[in-house]
Design brief:
The chain is of the alpha/beta class. It contains 7 helices and 7 strands; from the N terminus they run βαβαββαβαβααβα. Strands 4-3-2-1-5-6-7 form a 7-stranded parallel sheet, sandwiched between helices. The chain is globular.
Length: 181
């Protein structure tokens, strides 16, 4: 894995609940393994989803440091592996989006379900000046990519430049390194 000059603090957004396909779980696990091989710490909102648990389990195989904000209605995850795992409980009226956004250099987003869009949007808007890598093996982000190209880019090209789209963790990591500088 290519090295970066400073440790990268990477927020992650994963769909809640059961994964639509088993391949999504394997893809997330492989992404966690690959990305934790560099100087990356992970920050996220615990959502109790299969994709999140697979991603974090992959990251912990390489002893990644992880900080999770835990809503009151989500059970504390039990994750294999080692590395620092910090759990921060959220009050009933907190989303945690601002707390996560304040800590990170960039965002990693796996393809959301419709039920997750509000959570994703709250983190994206709170961290609007940071690059966001939309990572999916298929074309799950095609609609968002088209919206950015047609609606956001003409009026706000700098915002559009912050959204990156990749099909593999390796491709995404190269993009993030360039975007973070």
């Amino acid at each position: 894995m290519p090295e970066v000059k400073k440790p990268v603090k990477l927020a992650f957004l994963t769909p809640s609940g059961r994964a639509p396909r088993r391949a999504d779980v394997s893809f997330a696990h492989a992404a966690g393994v690959f990305l934790s091989g560099g100087h990356v710490s992970f920050y996220g909102l615990a959502d109790g989803g299969e994709v999140s648990e697979a991603f974090l389990a992959g990251a912990r195989t390489k002893k990644a440091d992880i900080q999770l904000w835990l809503p009151g209605d989500v059970e504390r995850p039990i994750l294999p592996g080692s590395g620092e795992l910090t759990i921060i409980p959220l009050a009933a009226n907190e989303t945690g989006a601002e707390a996560v956004a304040a800590e990170v250099d960039a965002i990693l987003a796996f393809a959301p379900r419709v039920a997750d869009l509000q959570r994703y949007f709250s983190v994206w808007t709170a961290a609007s000046t940071r690059p966001t890598l939309c990572l999916a093996a298929g074309d799950e982000f095609r609609l968002i990519r088209g919206f950015i190209a047609d609606v956001v880019s003409p009026g706000r090209p700098r915002y559009a430049e912050k959204l990156l789209f990749a099909h593999t963790p390796e491709e995404g990591w190269d993009m993030l390194k360039s975007a973070i500088g």
